[in-house]
Write a structure and sequence with these properties.
461 residues; globular; 70% helix; 0% strand; disordered N terminus; 20 helices; mainly alpha; single chain
Length: 461
C-alpha cells in the first residue's frame, strides 16, 4: 500500500471514529452495530463490478428475497445493486486503457441504443406524454442492463457464472413455490398478487418473486430449460443443474401457468430434435417417457382442469380479456404504425370509452399482455423492428456458436442461453415483458457470451 493510500485510510478511519457517537445516537445501537459489516460488504462489492452485477442477476427472478434483504434502504434492491455496479465500474477505470472504458462495440448494444433513441422520439409524440415519460424512466434503467452486462462480462468464464446464477435463482424460487403450494403458505412472494391471480379458489404462488405468478412461472420455465440443457450437454455441475431442472419442472406445474407449460413443451421438442443423432437418444427418450408416466399421479387434478381451459372461452374469462388486449393493440397500431401511441400509453387508452364494447375489457388500466404487439402499438413498427434486432443479434450468434450437443462446454452454455431465452420469448407472447428486467438481462447475456466466444474461438472440452 502506498503512503498516499495509507494516509487516506487513516483519515477515513479517523472520520468514521469521530462520527460514530452521532451514528449511534441517530440509528440506535443495534443498527449502528450492523453498519460496520454492511460497509465491509459494500466495500467488497465495489472491488469488482462482477460481484454486484452477479447479485443483480440472481435477484431479478428472486426479487421478493431481495426486497426483504434490502428493505431498510431508502431505494430498491435493484437500484442499489445497479448503482453499486456502476460505481465499481467507475473505480475500475483507472486500471484500464482509455479506449476500453466505454466497452466493446457489440451489435446488441448498438441496437439497444437505437431502440432507446426511438423510444424517446415516440415519447415526444405520445398521446399521453406524462405517462410515456414515467415509463421511459423505468425502461431506461432496464435497458442500461444490456450495455452493463456486455461491458463487464468479458470472458466465457464470467458468462458461465451469470448463467449459473440464473440456474441457482431458478432452483431457489422453484423450491419456495413448491413449498408454498404444498404447505399452503406464502414464504416470500406478495400474497396480494397471488390472490388476484387465483384460479378456482387456488391462490397461485410466485415463488421468491414479487412479479405476478404468470411472469414468475415464465422466468422459472426459462431457467429450467437452461438447467436442462446444461444437465444434458455438460458433465460439469450436472448434479446441480439436474436438480434445478427437476425442481423447475415441478414448480411449473404447481404455478398453474399454462404459458409456462407450453414454453417448456415446445422448447423441449426442439431439444429432442437437437439431440436426435446422439447414441443414447432412444434410451433417453424412453426414460423421459417413463418418468412422465410415473409423475402423472402426482400432478394435481386441478392442473389438468386448468390446461383444459386453454381454448375454452366459456370457462375462462381471461381468454376474452386477452382477446380484448390484442384487438385494442391492433387498433392503436393501425392509428399510428410509425411511432405508436407512446411508451406505456396502451394502459392509458385501454380505459378509453372508445373501447368500452371490446370483449373482456375491465375498468382498470392494464398493459397489453403480448410483448411484441405491445412494443408495436406503443413504439410503432420501427420500434418493434429495433426491439427484435436487439433480441435476435445475440441469440442468432449463440445458435451458430452452440455447435453439436456435448461438443464443448462453451457450446453447452451457448445452447443453454439460446434455448432458455427462446422459452422466455415464447412466453412473452402472453405477457408485457418489455417492462421486465429479465428480458434485458437475457439480451445482454446473449451478446456478452457470443462476443466472448468469438474473441476466443479455442474449443474447451
Amino acid at each position: 500500500m502506498t503512503r498516499t493510500a495509507r494516509l487516506a485510510l487513516a483519515l477515513g478511519c479517523s472520520g468514521v471514529g469521530a462520527l460514530m457517537p452521532m451514528v449511534v445516537g441517530a440509528m440506535g445501537f443495534a443498527k449502528a452495530l450492523a453498519l460496520g459489516p454492511a460497509m465491509a460488504v459494500a466495500g467488497f462489492m465495489l472491488l469488482d463490478p462482477m460481484r454486484p452485477l452477479l447479485l443483480l442477476v440472481f435477484f431479478v427472478p428472486t426479487d421478493a428475497l431481495a426486497n426483504l434483504l434490502f428493505r431498510g434502504l431508502p431505494l430498491s434492491a435493484s437500484m442499489a445493486l445497479t448503482l453499486a455496479t456502476l460505481a465499481a465500474l467507475v473505480f475500475e477505470f483507472p486500471r484500464e486503457a482509455r479506449e476500453r472504458r466505454l466497452g466493446p462495440d457489440d451489435p446488441v448494444v448498438r441496437w439497444t441504443l437505437a431502440f432507446a433513441l426511438w423510444c424517446l422520439v415516440s415519447t415526444l409524440f405520445a398521446d399521453h406524454r406524462d405517462t410515456a415519460l414515467e415509463a421511459m424512466g423505468r425502461l431506461a434503467g432496464m435497458m442500461l442492463l444490456v450495455p452493463l452486462i456486455v461491458r463487464i462480462v468479458q470472458t466465457v468464464a464470467q458468462a458461465r457464472l451469470m448463467v449459473l446464477a440464473l440456474v441457482a435463482a431458478t432452483m431457489f424460487t422453484s423450491t419456495v413455490l413448491v413449498a408454498d403450494s404444498v404447505l399452503g403458505v406464502r414464504l416470500l412472494s406478495n400474497e396480494g398478487a397471488a390472490v388476484n391471480a387465483a384460479w378456482e379458489g387456488i391462490a397461485r404462488s410466485a415463488g421468491a418473486s414479487d412479479y405476478n405468478p404468470t411472469t414468475a412461472a415464465i422466468m422459472i420455465a426459462s431457467g429450467t430449460v437452461m438447467a436442462l440443457v446444461l444437465a444434458l450437454e455438460s458433465p460439469q455441475y450436472r448434479l446441480f443443474t439436474g436438480a434445478a431442472a427437476a425442481l423447475g419442472l415441478a414448480a411449473s406445474v404447481l404455478s398453474y401457468a399454462r404459458s409456462a407449460a407450453l414454453c417448456i413443451l415446445l422448447v423441449g421438442l426442439l431439444l429432442a430434435w437437437r439431440h436426435r443423432a446422439r447414441r443414447g437418444f432412444p434410451l433417453a427418450m424412453a426414460g423421459l417417457l417413463a418418468m412422465a408416466v410415473a409423475m402423472l399421479p402426482i400432478v394435481p387434478e386441478t392442473y389438468w382442469d386448468r390446461l383444459a381451459t386453454l381454448t375454452n372461452f366459456s370457462s375462462d374469462y381471461t381468454l376474452w380479456r386477452r382477446l380484448g388486449y390484442n384487438l385494442i393493440g391492433l387498433d392503436l397500431l393501425a392509428d399510428n404504425p410509425l411511432l405508436g401511441a407512446g411508451p406505456a400509453n396502451f394502459h392509458y387508452h385501454y380505459v378509453d370509452q372508445e373501447y368500452r364494447y371490446i370483449p373482456g375489457r375491465t375498468m382498470f388500466a392494464r398493459h397489453l399482455h403480448n410483448m411484441y404487439l405491445g412494443v408495436a402499438s406503443e413504439m410503432g413498427l420501427v420500434g418493434l423492428a429495433l426491439f427484435l434486432a436487439l433480441l435476435g443479434s445475440g441469440l442468432l450468434r449463440l445458435r451458430r456458436l452452440a455447435g453439436r450437443p456435448g461438443e464443448t462446454v462453451d457450446g453447452a452454455f451457448a445452447a443453454a442461453i439460446y434455448h432458455g431465452a427462446l422459452a422466455y420469448l415464447l412466453g412473452s407472447l402472453f405477457m408485457p415483458h418489455q417492462y421486465a428486467k429479465f428480458t434485458w438481462i437475457l439480451a445482454g447475456l446473449a451478446g456478452a457470451l457470443a462476443r466472448a466466444m468469438q474473441a476466443d474461438p479455442v474449443k474447451r472440452e
